[in-house]
Amino acid sequence: MTETVAAARPARRALPPLMALTDGAADRLRKLYATGQEGKLLRIGVGTKGCSGLSYQMSWVDAPGPGDEIVNDKGVTVLVDRKASLFLIGTVMDYEVKTLEAGFTFTNPNEKGRCGCGESFHV
To answer: Which run of H or E residues covers position 28?
Structure first.
């Protein structure tokens, strides 16, 4: 009699979240969603631009599209264009206020470098 032994599959390692928000980014988005962008959602994508080739793109949309990943973090929803998902896995979005400027910033573990002006990156 022959016994078949099923090979035990190794446990799958958990994937990092597609994107996370800092408290600053979540607070700023809540304010935007409650005022001028009420009823809209922020969509984040990646496009070709600049010296290094890629840049972050943000736009306001009325509803998720068929190619959007929905990210819920800290009670806030943002959309990620599915075509940008591989470039953004593990990215942390923040909102920074500096002396002369304020805006959303991205800490992306997939970035291999940025151009000198900081407008574009490459993976």
So the answer is: helix 23-34
